[in-house]
Write a structure and sequence with these properties.
The protein is α/β, with parallel strands linked by helices and about 375 residues long. Helix 1 runs parallel beside helix 6. The strands form three sheets. The chain has an eight-stranded mixed beta sheet, sandwiched between helices. A six-stranded mixed beta sheet has the order 7-3-2-11-18-17. A four-stranded mixed beta sheet has the order 1-10-9-8, with no helix packed on it. Bound molecules: flavin-adenine dinucleotide (FAD). The site of flavin-adenine dinucleotide (FAD) has 39 residues, from helix 1, strand 3, strand 12, strand 15 and strand 16.
């Protein structure tokens, strides 16, 4: 009979959500035994645009982990182009960063370990629970578990929680390409593809940029087509073929209940990805921290408390981005939003909606309504 190892908290997956959960729990309870189970050996690649939004940086700061962006230049400028060719550009009050996930995730996991979490290389297969404890692979046991094992979460499947419904899962292809003199700005070029879709070019450092193309509410596309879209929208970017990889994005517009008994889901496992942009690092960091906080504050029944914390932090944001993602099936919506975003104050609101915890403001709604009227009467959005 295998020995059962008991812990205060077990976290499955050491990406941003899992590392944040383990780090926060240990910081608040230095005597706790926190086990972080991860199937990959760090440093490992993760398919991503690598952009950390200003809200994401704020969350890193809150976790005492801001050092993970050290050595990468701050980027405050953003340029956006709509399907109809309208452009908006501006400088955000706070910068973001583009840190390859191979670096970011290893640094975050290191911080969790430095804070006293135990990181073990284990590919989790089974999760069982009764009213008192959760058992993982019949080897580890804890009063609570945080499932932070990403878009194809085994924990989520083990709970019997269905995958996101069609229309609430996206797919995106990423590659690393030479920087080729790209300005120090995040560039997003939206296209009309039956829903929000865009190509991006994000500078990592002086030499390299992260490029890609994502369909945000559909997966009915081949890899070749995604690759063609990168070139069609960004020009001759020449990404290194070995780095071109695609992955699914479970959007928050189709998210499940974030807990089941004593198991809390965080990050992509809880489908906490922005349906307008596919951004997920900020939500992963935030939800990981809140999941840990819920286990600390309500150890006997953390699920409802976690749900309430998530709702307080992101409830309105989820509603507004879900609504906008549905409206974005009509390209004029994005044309209207980008037209509005030529006003720097609106650009800031739009940036927060797209990459952080922002909500719709009357001004943005007025611009979308005006855009709809222009579209209705056949006028150009320019
Ligand atoms: C192409 C693309 C571009 C993107 N661009 C951006 C961007 O620019 N900015 C942004 O903020 N977000 C972006 N995202 C979204 C972002 O990558 C995710 O939202 C984020 O990684 C979620 O973090 P996580 O910790 O929940 O999951 P992950 O980062 O996926 O981490 C999950 C971890 O769990 C481990 N794991 C999985 N299964 C098991 C198992 N059975 N046992 C043990 N360990 C396991 C994995 O190895 C992994 O380390 C992008 C996504 C894609 C696909």
């Amino acid at each position: 009979v295998r020995r059962l190892h008991r812990h205060s908290l077990v976290v499955v997956g050491a990406g941003p959500a899992g590392a944040a959960a383990a780090l926060h729990f240990r910081r608040c309870r230095p005597d706790a035994s926190v086990l972080l189970l991860e199937k990959a050996a760090f440093p490992r690649d993760k398919v991503c645009g690598d952009a950390i939004s200003p809200d994401g940086v704020g969350e890193l700061e809150r976790l005492g982990a801001r050092s993970v962006v050290d050595g990468y230049p701050p980027i405050a400028r953003m340029r956006v182009r709509s399907p109809g060719g309208v452009e908006a550009a501006g400088v955000a009050p706070e910068p973001g960063y583009v840190v390859p996930r191979q670096v970011l995730d290893a640094r975050l996991a290191d911080l969790a370990v430095a804070a006293g979490a135990e990181l073990r290389r284990v590919k989790v297969r089974t999760v069982e629970q009764d009213g008192h404890a959760v058992r993982i692979d019949e080897r580890f046991e804890a009063p609570a578990l945080v499932g932070a094992d990403g878009a194809n979460s085994v924990v989520r499947r083990q709970l019997g929680v269905r995958p996101n419904p069609a229309g609430h899962v996206g797919i995106a292809l990423r590659g690393y390409a030479p920087r080729n003199g790209q300005d120090p700005e995040l560039y997003l070029r939206w296209v009309a593809a039956g829903g929000p879709a865009y190509a991006w070019a994000f500078p990592v450092d002086d030499r390299v940029r992260n490029v890609g193309f994502g369909l945000l509410t559909s997966t009915t596309v081949t890899r070749d087509l995604l690759e063609q879209e990168v070139h069609r929208n960004l020009g001759p970017v020449a990404p290194d073929a070995a780095t071109l990889r695609a992955h699914h994005l479970p959007m928050s517009s189709g998210r499940p209940c974030p807990y089941h008994g004593r198991v809390l889901l965080a990050g992509d496992a809880a489908a906490l990805v922005n349906p307008l942009t596919g951004e997920g690092i900020f939500y992963a960091l935030l939800s990981g921290r809140l999941a840990a906080q819920a286990v600390l504050d309500a150890p006997h029944d953390p699920g409802p408390y976690y749900t309430a914390l998530l709702h307080d932090a992101l409830g309105r944001h989820f509603r507004h981005t879900g609504l906008l993602a549905r409206m974005a099936a009509w390209p004029w919506t994005i044309d209207s939003v980008v037209t509005a975003a030529r006003d720097p104050a609106v650009l800031q609101t739009v940036g927060e909606l797209a990459f952080g915890k922002g909500v719709l403001t009357p001004r943005v709604v007025a611009h979308i309504t005006a855009g709809w009227l222009r579209h209705r009467w056949g006028l150009s959005a320019r």
